[in-house]
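Predict the 3D structure for this chain.
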Amino acid sequence: MNQLVNSTVLSNFATVQRLDLLRDPQNSLFIPVEIYHEIQEAQEAGYTFYFDFERFLHPFSAHGWLKLVTTNEDELLLFTSLPAKLHPGEAACLAIARNRHWGFLTDDKAARLQANEWNIPFSGTLGILTLAVENGLLTLADGNELLRAMRIRANYRSPIDDLSLLLSR
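Done. Predicted structure below.
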């Protein structure tokens, strides 16, 4: 299933230089133009973990695996119907996900509530880290170290500090 990702999840993984953990060779990962604008603003504000971000982004890089997407007319109508408390990036992700039946990666509580209301499949930073451990891309110790680093460097407010609480038994 194609998925969209918002800037909070991107920031968490970019901060620890592990955007590669978001890559799924079997499914495409997209960011709306609104999220890309947020990243550009972060670059201009000096957030160094986003410098060179374009090397991951298609069409800016031939090897980019994150794909830029724009909203169509139907999605713009959905976008404008969403509560104002949602940032434009989250609203764009939700509108596209609902219209195209895609998944959504977010840690934003309001965006998750709306995704749940619209039956949009979603996950976030903890889900991605847990899946990486379950799939053998990370050891549990490495996953917990990345989580700790995200909490320190990205100010990620995780409800847990040990991924073993989420692993399949």
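Residues 34 and 89 are 5 Å apart (CA to CA).
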